[in-house]
Each structure stands twice: as structure tokens, then as C-alpha cells.
Amino acid sequence: MDFTLSDEQRALQDSVQRYVSRQYAFESRRAIERTAAGWSPQVWQDLADLGVLGINVPQEHGGLGYGPIETLLVMNLFGSCLLLEPYAASAVVATAVLRDSASTHLQASWLPRLVRGEAVATLAHFEPTSRFDARQVRSRATLANGGYVLQGQKALVEHAAADILLVSARIAGADDAQEGVSLFVVPRDAPGLSLRSCRTLDGRSAADIALESVEVPASARVGMDGGALAVIERSLGFGTAALCAEAVGAMQALVDATVAHLKTRQQFGRPIGSFQALAHRAADMLLELEQARSMSFLAAVRSMGADDRERQRALSAAKVITNRAARFIGQQAVQLHGGMGMTDELQVGHWFKRLAAIEMTLGDTDTHLQRFAALGTFPASVRAT
Fold it and tell me: Where are the alpha helices (DSSP H) in the chain?
């Protein structure tokens, strides 16, 4: 497989790299995190001006018409700077849902606005009893007055204070049936919709959502009635690949920071990196990073594949390897930095917390191991760990 980047991909990577290095320094990020919203509308508009919000939007709607590899390159950089803005939630997952299944009217209404940074969207799918199982949907949608009435709950929705929520609800079938799930565009200020906001481990905005007789018109339905689960699972898979890429960016930054610390921290009159035991631990961190990087490319390439089984196998394998690498690299980095590794003033602790959150997002290690076991044989790299 040829991993050589095209001129357009290099230009995209360079422009985003320049922006985050100049405008998203660690102290700037800490100031953004302390705001009420937890992210910066100005940064969001800057990303729109760079064209980054339109990577996954077709050109006819004002986007760049790119795909998973370009998303991977951008998420690598956002992982290294610990971007707080709702990029994965809105510009990756929600955008993929609208692009792949929304009506022409909904696409024309929302995709150009998402590209221009005028609106933010997020998928509200998982529920308190879901435990990473996308099929578990208890929220219900009933026909009424030519539209739908939504009842139910959604749990820990990232950036739930978005302009629109893509809310899943079941119109028929048992709580875990493959068919019978529909998806609806619901404005944040819809009567009957309430948010219980919180901050996650890594300082990001999230909320539990309650739907109490929320009325939406029939035109708000995304895709086929009762057939939304397939596109939800594909979009979540795309989001999983993006998360793996973000984790690789954060792990690369952690490895770089740790190696720099080992070269400069003095003990017994010499850099601590000269001690063999610590040098070996840094080398192990690098090995884990490179394995996760390879798997993130595999996840990106397979994330939009037509073969559901092969796509799911690749994504689960990548998430397992990434989760394990994230935990190992995060723990080693904190330990090698000593007690200051978990202080708020040092970026190492923030990378560690973000990696811990990624490990528990869209399926933890045990969940993806079980999914992979049901789909086929583990690759040698997974069996050996």
C-alpha cells in the first residue's frame, strides 16, 4: 500500500499544523477549557476558514469532498494539540450521517452551514443501558399529526449543546432489533428536550438528554423510516477511525515530550535518559506508538469499505491496539515525568486524560475484543499482547 501523501494532502496537513502551532498553544487551550462552553466559536470559525470543516462534505455542498485519509491527518494534529472543539462529533460523525442518508432538502439545509462553521451537529444515539451496543435503542418515536413524537433518554452525548441533534428512536421492534430505528434532526431548543450538562474526564462538554414528548415534522427524519441503524453504525465506525488517529497524535506528542524530558532531567550528574532501564521504557513506548499508527491507517482505509464484516474487524482490531497503546504510553509518560506528570500545569497529564477518555469512547478494549472474536481470528499482533 502506498502511503505517500498527495500535494493536496500535504498542503492540508501543513495549513492545519501552522494554525494549531500558532493559535492553539497549551495556555490558550487551558483558557478555552475554562470558559462556560468549553470550546471556542472563534477557533471553530478559523477551522471553517481553513476548509477543515468541509473535509467530509461533497463539493456540491461547499465542502472539499475528501475522505478518511485527510480526516486521519487532521485528527493526528488535533490529538497533539488536544483540540476541544467538536470536530469529531460534528465534522466527522454527524456530517457522515447527513451526507450518507439525509434527504436532498436536509443536506442542502445543513451541510453548507456545517462547512461554513455556522452550525454544529452531534449524534445522540447511545443510551444509559446501551453499553457500546448500537442496536440497544429504547427511545421511541410514534406517529402523530403527520410527524413524530419522541420519548426517551440519551447518555453522555458529546457537545450536546449543538445547534442540531441527530436523535435515534425506535418506531418498531424490540429494544435490540436490527430494524425499526429511525433518525431525526432535532433543534437544541425543541420543546420537551432538556440537557443535564457535565464535563468529561478530559474537560470536554457533554450532557445527558431527556426527550419528553418532543414533536418533529416528518421532514426531519433522516433516511428511511426504521432503517437508520446501518448508517449509524457506519458513521460510528468512521468516528472510531478518527478517534484512533487522534489518539496517535496525542501519543506522538507524549513520546516526544517524554524523550525531551529524559534528555534534560539530570540525576547523579547525568541525564536520566542515559540510564538503560529508562531508555528501554522509552523504546517500548515508541514501539507501541508505531503499531498503533499502522492500525490507525488500516482503520481509516477500511472505515468506509462496502464489506461490513471486514470493516468491523479492522475497526475493532485498530481500537484494541490503540487502546492498549494509549494506556501503556500514557502511564509510562506520567511515571517517567515523576509526580509533576499529573499536575494541571504540565501538558503531559492532559494528554494522559484525553487518552483515557478515548479508551472508553465508542467501545472499550473488552468490547472490541469480543466483537473481533465474533467476526474472525485475531491477527498475530493482537494474540501476542
Answer: 7-23, 26-33, 41-50, 68-81, 95-101, 104-115, 229-264, 276-302, 308-337, 347-359, 365-375, 380-383
Q: What is the pLDDT along the chain (385 residues), one digit of tens a residue?
A: 567 899 999 999 999 999 999 999 999 999 999 999 999 999 999 999 999 999 999 999 999 999 999 999 999 999 999 999 999 999 999 999 999 999 999 999 999 999 999 999 999 999 999 999 999 999 999 999 899 999 999 999 999 999 999 999 999 999 999 999 999 999 999 999 999 999 999 999 999 999 999 999 999 999 999 999 999 999 999 999 999 999 999 999 999 999 999 999 888 888 888 889 999 999 999 999 999 999 999 999 999 888 899 999 999 999 999 999 999 999 999 999 987 888 888 999 999 999 999 999 999 999 999 999 998 754 554 444 4
When the candidates are 1.20.140.150, 1.20.140.10, 1.10.150.120, 1.10.287.70, the CATH number that belongs to 230-383 is 1.20.140.10
Is CATH 1.10.540.10 the classification given to domain 7-120?
yes
CATH of 122-224, one of 3.30.499.10, 2.40.50.180, 2.60.300.12, 2.40.110.10: 2.40.110.10
Tell me the pTM. 0.94
